[in-house]
């Protein structure tokens, strides 16, 4: 079941004033596909996700969602078209409760009964959040915070969800739970997912495909099982 969410990235070149960090990056995501974005520290994963969200500007290239060009749109207009980014780090509001954080995510998207339905849908999917509704962000464990960041993105019903290293700093069992929850959410909602991760094994375990970046260029784009089995590639770019 898919609701769109086809992403086409073509020839993206992005820099921060100096030499480019991404050099003509291009690949596609089919609706409902889960794609792992892999590569060493500094390969350009964060820069690519920020460019997709409109937080970094490309000097050339295009980004299109379901055939509509997003390249010149502002971040909020991209969000309205259904693109959501879960940034790296702990992006939940520490002073607000779990419930307030989720409301914040739904505020601009839904009103009234639709807002309540969207929030209830997230609680249904994330048991631990439902139990901690009234806890403040700063009282949550790292895993709960990451789950809240994910939940807050989901209340806006994105068609394309990009996540920047959600596993960072989490214990292996917590990572496994987060990944399976993400996979279930993607399947249930027919949502396309672009998952930037240094935790290659975890990301490939739920991904259909993997795209490997090295020094700002795509060096591999293949089914997840093929990437996991490619020893040469693993040694060269993925560090295992
Ligand atoms: P990480 O896992 O560390 O986030 P990454 O693959 O996400 O790595 P980026 O964060 O996109 O890589 O960084 C790619 C390159 O761009 C690095 O060389 C980094 O130093 C540089 N860079 C990132 N952000 C900025 C910035 N705001 N200003 C200047 N250079 C930057």
Automatic annotation (TrEMBL):
Protein name per its UniProtKB record: ABC transporter ATP-binding protein
Family classification: Belongs to the ABC transporter superfamily.
Organism: Microbacterium jejuense
Alphabetical UniProt keywords: Amino-acid transport, ATP-binding, Nucleotide-binding, Transport
MF-aspect GO terms: ATP binding
Gene3D superfamilies: P-loop containing nucleotide triphosphate hydrolases
InterPro entries in the cross-refs: AAA+_ATPase, ABC_transporter-like_ATP-bd, ABC_transporter-like_CS, BCAA_Transport_ATP-bd_LivF, P-loop_NTPase
Keyword Transport in annotation: yes
Lineage: Bacteria, Bacillati, Actinomycetota, Actinomycetes, Micrococcales
PANTHER family to which the protein is assigned, alphabetical: HIGH-AFFINITY BRANCHED-CHAIN AMINO ACID TRANSPORT ATP-BINDING PROTEIN LIVF
Residue span(s) of domain ABC transporter: 7-240
